[in-house]
Design goal:
The chain is of the alpha+beta class. It folds into 2 domains: 125 residues, Creatine Amidinohydrolase, Chain A, domain 1, CATH 3.40.350.10; 213 residues, Creatine Amidinohydrolase, CATH 3.90.230.10. It contains 9 helices and 19 strands. The strands form 6 sheets. The chain has a 6-stranded mixed sheet with strand order 4-3-2-1-5-6. Strands 7-10-11 form a 3-stranded antiparallel sheet. Helix 4 crosses helix 5, helix 6 crosses helix 7 and helix 8 runs antiparallel to helix 9. Bound molecules: zinc ion (2 copies). The site of one zinc ion has 5 residues, from loops. One zinc ion binds next to loops.
Length: 356
Amino acid sequence: MRDERIKRVRAYMEEKGLEGLFVSSMDNIRYLSGFTGSAGYIVITLKEAYFFTDSRYTLQAGAEVSGFRIEEVKRPWVDIPGFLKDLGLKRMGFEGAYLSFDSYHKMREALPGSELVSLGDELDGMRAIKDDHEIEAIERAAGIACTAIMDVLPLIKEGVSERDLALELEYRIRKEGGEGVSFDPIVLSGRRTALPHGKPSSNTIGSREPVLIDFGAVFDGYHSDETWTFAIDGFDREMERIYMVVKEAHDSALEAVRPGVEAKTIDGAARGVIERAGYGPFFGHGTGHGVGLSVHERPKISPYSTEVIREGMVFTIEPAIYIPDRGGVRIEDMVLVTNKGCRVLTRVSKDGAIVC
Ligand code: ZN
Ligand code: ZN
């Protein structure tokens, strides 16, 4: 599996005329080497592959990393450029989106004879199509998230604070086998649901006001991400109408997913429904994003995306309407692109009654 990934990277290097590739994004390092620690670097040449880390991680790298020569470094930004200099690479790619300005300059000074080529975040694209193992891990993560919210259901009643619910949800996600939460759970109620990424507060949940819960679990490094919006005793009339519009936008986007379609067409399917209902100005963000080793990755599902959808991609569909000082609704699910359409991976039903 990892050999196959390295092969793909080398084909990419040949296409770009690169003799070497320096990888510094931890997600891409994990994808290529299997390393799960938090400090390491990779150098791939057309013939060799090197993994650099410091003494805190040497043992771990020995157990997790295969197919790479493992090198322990004391001062990465002195030792690695020195090592690269000895390799004598004429043209080397690096991840401009992830290398700091200072680190780039250290590399530049140490390698005066080498051409350094920024690849931005292009390498992230190799992670967009998931293999069976990755899909299984994502499904496990979604399953854990669903069981956790079921565990929390009895606590969701009038008078409980957003913060207490978020805390309980996080505890349950870990208790059910999650390595962690995909991000701090977002639990908002009442007018605060109009904040797309608001932080849970001491605000308490009241009857007939919207409650928005955006949450996810991590399993084997892979994330889940979904949003459930509901109201205890049901929405009032205006919020009910908004909910129905967002649900129609969500369902239209799901129907638009298939291999070969442009990502912006899927966004347009959701956005069109919201615009026609007169709520266009209240949906500011994109319709979705890829999910995998990172909770936000490629492809982007937005009006500006240039990506084409392919079988095996996993991303969210999350249209929303946020009315300032009134409230918001977001409905988010994760889908896997199949040969004809898509399969929903998240397990919490968004049709009202919660069923995993
Ligand atoms: Zn989310
Ligand atoms: Zn999301």
